[in-house]
Amino acid sequence: MILIVFFLLHWYFSLFCQSFFLHRYAAHQMFFMSKYWEKFFYIFTWITQGSSYLSPRAYAILHRMHHAYSDTPKDPHSPHHTENLFTMMWKTKNIYNDYFSFRLKPEERFSKDVPDWNKFDLFADSMIARVGWALLYILIYVLSISVFELAGTHWWMYFLLPIHLMMGPVHGAIVNWSGHKYGYANFDNNDKSKNSLLLDVLMLGELFQNNHHKLPNRPNFAVKWYEFDPTYPIVKLLHASGIIKLRAA
Length: 249
Hints:
Elements: H1 2-27, E1 31-33, H2 35-49, H3 56-68, H4 85-100, H5 108-111, H6 118-124, H7 127-147, H8 161-165, H9 167-178, H10 209-214, H11 231-240, E2 244-246
Antiparallel strand pairs: 1-2
Helix pairs in contact: 1-2, 1-3, 3-4, 4-9
């Protein structure tokens, strides 16, 4: 089923870039990488996120604010200060756009040393780039389902297209909503962060939110013996290969 494979590849490669590059590198600087590899992962993130590309600089600012103000009214994406999932996503989008476009200036602690390739961000965030990716996704589905009628494809698969178009924000919404509402807590962090163990198979370690809020600079989000962070072995492999250098190493 070519479209299911395409969807899963898009889901997990996009999610990996969000977890590895945007979250662990841009926001938390858990490891070092050269400018060459930083630009490589900028481009790789754009390819994998496509029409829903998120700027590493703006993402890092919002995520640092999230840690500083976790589950308070100043949190840019707390499920406990919004009416529902969609109002949380809309609030996050507006704050993200304000920092992306420099309409708001963040405190220095939120913007210090964040990666910034502004020219690339402007291109990747442009309407031409986003529409181009959207048309590519639509073309793949139309050719597979309606033109060539490939085996295993069905009309209902068109409903997967909105997720392709909004892949980055969808991942963020799942993590920020579920990771602060559902699951268990290993630590008292003075917030409502949770470890959503049963859902984390979909999220590559990102739903160990309670662990992460307790140990924000630890590259392995799993703590207990029964927890597993799928992104961490990849981080270790990239460290062993010399592409990155873990701070703790």
